[in-house]
Design a protein that fits this description.
Elements (H helix, E strand, L loop, with lengths): L1 H23 L1 H21 L7 H16 L4 H9 L2 H25 L5 H22 L8 H4 L8 H15 L4
Helix pairs in contact: 1-2, 1-3, 2-3, 2-4, 2-6
Pfam family, one: Sugar_tr
GO cellular component, one term: membrane
Protein name: Major facilitator superfamily (MFS) profile domain-containing protein
């Protein structure tokens, strides 16, 4: 029953992400998503386990919603916009390797850390990700599709485009 509920929440959140990405863009949605996940991790870490566990379930579900509307969907759209196919394959391979490692190691680390400590560790990782988003990620909404592959290039796209046009004109025998 719980898996079905989480699946439905994931599906609804992913559908909502489609509309939110079109309206707000990738970077703002990833930042909002990350901030929401941070608040949920704080709530999960500081909420006493002895108290009503319904709140823990609610915070976990809200965490999943925040993840799915931003970091779970926007990051993949962003990657396909700014990377080549080879870069995407490398990035996705690394993503799944790290996801597998986190899944395998989280349960084992519960022997060394308590659940609260793990939430704080994940919060620290989330905060580092938030800083990375704020300072290093560039917005792609509204950018011409052709220029996105050069978004992080040291040479501005306008110079690349001008160089291509000049090369085409000089080799065209009909000009």
């Amino acid at each position: 029953m719980g898996t079905t509920i989480i699946g439905v929440i994931n599906c609804i959140s992913a559908i909502a992400a489609i509309f939110l990405l079109a309206k707000f863009g990738r970077k703002p949605l990833m930042i909002i998503s990350n901030i929401g996940m941070c608040f949920c991790l704080i709530a999960l870490a500081v909420w006493p386990k002895s108290q009503n566990s319904t709140y823990l379930i609610v915070f976990a579900i809200v965490f999943i919603i925040f993840f799915e509307i931003g970091m779970g969907s926007a990051i993949f759209m962003y990657a396909t916009e700014i990377m080549t196919e080879f870069g995407i394959s490398i990035a996705l391979s690394i993503t799944w390797i790290l996801t597998t490692l986190v899944s395998l190691l989280t349960f084992k680390t519960l022997g060394y850390f308590n659940q609260r400590d793990l939430y704080f560790i994940f919060l620290g990782i989330n905060l580092l990700g938030l800083l990375f988003l704020i300072f290093f990620i560039k917005e792609t909404k509204g950018e011409p599709k052709e220029s996105l592959k050069y978004l992080y290039s040291k040479i501005p796209y306008e110079e690349i485009l001008t160089a291509r046009l000049n090369a085409t004109e000089s080799t065209n025998p009909f000009i």
